[in-house]
Amino acid sequence: MNAKHILSISVLALVAPVFAQTVPAEAWVGAPLHAVSAASRDEVIGEFIAARAEASAPQELRVGPAPTPTGALTSAEVAADLNLWIRSGMAQVAGQENFDPNAPAFRAQLAVFEQMRHGPAFVAEVERIRHGGLAVITSAQLDDGTSTR
Prior knowledge:
The chain is mainly alpha-helical. It has a domain at 75-132. It has helices at residues 2-19, 25-29, 41-54, 75-87, 90-94, 104-117, 120-132. α4 crosses α7 (120-132). The longest helix is centred in the first third of the chain and has 18 residues, at 2-19. The N and C termini lie far apart (83 Å).
């Protein structure tokens, strides 16, 4: 029995390379691409210089906060948005365990928030925060009154 197994394994080992086929790399990844550009050398150099003038480090290489995009909200507008979110009841609805964004109750609550956010309530809230002195907390106080700064 062992001799039959050894003989059949050795026959397969000798015959298997005959049936094996090698596949060229083009069959796996496709033919190589040859880039052809319609731009002249001067145009390419000009685009490179323009891009270099306004280039910034890629996001994965940045250290620190990302640059603020143009048209970003002020801190008063963000705080007003959050206050309206809470006041409209969205914080309670969205924070539920069985939250369903397609539920009619959520849609109705979202409509209330959107109405407040895009109406005079938002402007009034921003003004209230600006004139009420929204303080930015820069240090925390310990129980004994000392600062952690």
